[in-house]
Amino acid sequence: MSAPTIPPNPLFNANRMKLGVMAFNCSRGSTVTLDDLAWPMTWQDNVELARLADRAGFEALLPVGRWKGYGGASNFNHRAFESFTWAAGISASTERISVLSTVHAPLVHPVTAAKQAATIDHISGGRFVMNVVCGWNRPEFEMFGAPWREHDRRYEYAAEWLALIRRLWTETKEFDFEGEFFQGQGLWSEPKPLQPVVPLMNAGSSPIGQAFSAQHCDMNFVMLRQKSEDTDRAQISQLKRMALDHGRTSQCWIHVYVVCRDTEQEARAVLERYVRKNGDWDTAARMVELFGLESGTLDPAVLDEFKFHFIAGHGGYPLVGTPEQIVEGLLRLSNMGVDGVLISWLDYIAECQQWIDEVLPLMVQAELRAA
Q1: Section 183-196 average pLDDT
Q2: pTM as predicted
Q3: Residue 19 and residue 37: Cα distance in Å, rounded?
């Protein structure tokens, strides 16, 4: 009996600018705000949004790996669906779109992660992608009593974690493993994933994080530092060049937070309302400090100005204005080397529908996407 034919993962289609939706498995999504329209996060809404993006031809759905909230008035992200089980349910509810899980490598044993990933790949028909996080949120690790390793050691751990998973996905006989972090006898996992190679994403932005992503991953989830367009372009170019040095190609995806209205003035008024008026500034300040301290991503000099971006969309890149202005921004990002955007909104379902109705046709006209 011949093996079933698996269509190529949607991540690798020919669209110049690929589209995804992120963080809707968590309460308030990516907005650190007390605004009435902040994402309430129910399973029914998750499925509705996933199907909406799937029918529209989006490429990816990315959950955040979150185990507890950040406290404060909003207790941002304190309700969150676990990302592997979320991905299984979302995969069964969609037909074409790639579905990711975000996994904290130090918190999930590779034998478990390999089996979970393979299961979801079968449920999805070969649409699974794994987003590997090496660890930065110390309060969550303290929930597990997990070892808290020095920053660079986390990537050494994750490299061995991935090496073991890849053997579990590919080897047809039991094997023993004796590494620095993992030891095991008679290791084995079946079924194998449907995809010959399960695509991997990583958001490493520190020097060692960039090196890890370039060597091991197919997608780098980039946090642009937003100092200038030239520095953002250089940041993306460096990441792609590093992947080529390892004989790989790597897509660069970024998180964008979107506020799209009929006029720029209206869009900026909405942004000001949910950030300036209703934003949880105390919580955002703690988040920026924690993220900057533990991830090695942001220069301390820019942490304060990033509070606004954290409230507006967890540090994402702003696309604010009319549909035409949004597409102009997407063209600019594409010309900088960005391959895909993972979108968050304040009001996910209504604003995703607006994107489909008003922005997507303009992207086709701009030749960012096929009709």
Answers
A1: 97
A2: 0.93
A3: 23
